[in-house]
Amino acid sequence: MKTLFAALFVVLFAAVAQRPAAVTYVLNPATSRLTWTGYAEAGGYAPTGTLRLAPGGTLVAEGPGALRAARVLVDVRTLAHDNPTLQEHLRGADFFDVAHFPEATFELGRVAGGQAQGQLTLKGQTRPISVPVTVTALGADSLLLQGTARLDRTQFGINYNSSSFFQNLGSYAIRNEFQLAFRLKAGRR
To answer: Is 164 helix (H, G, I), strand (E, B) or coil?
Structure first.
């Protein structure tokens, strides 16, 4: 019996010893890219713009592609669109209210089956989300995270011109779902 326990201990210790050490990476706002797309409920109108990361986001990985933890900070005040009127409307209280909620945060819970599962805090409300993600090692000291999230804005209290909340909007109706494509680069701390 002692031999069995000793053998089990050796096998477990060897498995733990072979596990790669966790490495912390810092997200780089200057080289990362976030692109949003909204959609009209009817017709093909789909405005697109950009957002930038806020400084301070981090990733923790055990070996290439083995993402264990992440904290992604988005500076919602950087929400941009070519049309200045639309840009200001999206930054205003009807949509993202950046004066009161300047930052959005994603906290990773786990990655399973190519899906990053975690908590998104947007406009002061936190909800669980699952986002497809690909993690790629860019050399020994950097990582690239890519994917496209589809988010329901009404889950975060953004109800403006949603046919789920208002009737008879006609061509003014805006789809609840918007898209956020991301290409995030991080360097070893």
So the answer is: coil
Q: Which of 139, 111, 138, 108 is nearest to 121 (CA)?
A: 108
Give the β-pairing of 115-122 and 125-132: antiparallel
pLDDT in tens, 61-82: 987 668 999 999 999 999 999 9
Asked if residues 84 and 58 have their Cβ atoms less than 8 Å apart, the reply is no
Strands 134-137 and 142-152: antiparallel
Q: What span, in angstroms and rounded, lies between the C-alpha atoms of 50 and 76?
A: 10
> What are the tens digits of pLDDT across the range 87-140?
999 999 999 999 999 999 999 999 999 999 999 999 999 999 999 999 999 888
Q: Which CATH superfamily is domain 23-188 in?
A: Lipid/polyisoprenoid-binding, YceI-like (2.40.128.110)
Bridge partners of residue 36, in order along the sequence: 49, 180
Taking the CB of residue 189, how many other CB atoms lie within 10 A of it?
11
